Amino acid sequence: MNSHDKDFPPFFNQILDTASEMVFRYETKYMGTSKRLISEAIVQQKKMEYDDLMETFLDEIFGSDSMVTKKEWIEYVVKKQKWLFNGSSIREKLGYEIIAGE
Fold this sequence. Notes:
This protein has 102 residues and is mainly α. The chain has helices spanning 8-19, 21-31, 40-47, 50-62, 70-80, 87-93.
């Protein structure tokens, strides 16, 4: 893996969108609520933070190296960036604060 892989940003952003934007966009339909907990304006504001989060993510994986092997990539992502595999952790990383019962 290369730290400047041009294909990585769209995939990373899609993972973040799936765990945040998509959840909030469809929550009224699937949760049976009448009002969204997170407004579209807040979602768009958080999307502006994707690049910073991706940069931090990549720094944790690559450090000062520009390349890692596939095996190292998998190991580093699973050990150092496991938040990427949990929707709640992704929303927490993005700074979404949802108080139960609101």
